[in-house]
């Protein structure tokens, strides 16, 4: 068995596709009517489809999981983030952990938590 994809729920799939392309360079692999597979295995699913399947409300900013990316030039990434999405909401601004890794945590357009850290 192998893990194939990570799926996140989004309200506006086109805006989310643009967000993940702008910041992380993820490109569209497959557009399947409310489900978009992006490079690196990230799947965006329209909130209406998820609600229909699950029958429950979506809880943005649940802080129960995060997408994790690594970036060597994290200061340049944070500048790009703030320039491209000035109203982005942070969980943690750029900080350095006691073990030396720099990280920033923020929410995407739908409240999905993202962490970007320097490689360990």
Automatic annotation (TrEMBL):
InterPro entries: Glyas_Bleomycin-R_OHBP_Dase (IPR029068), Glyoxalase-like_dom (IPR025870), VOC_core (IPR037523). It comes from the Bacteria. Residues 2-119 form the VOC domain. It holds the Pfam family Glyoxalase_2. This is Glyoxalase-like domain protein. It comes from Blautia obeum.
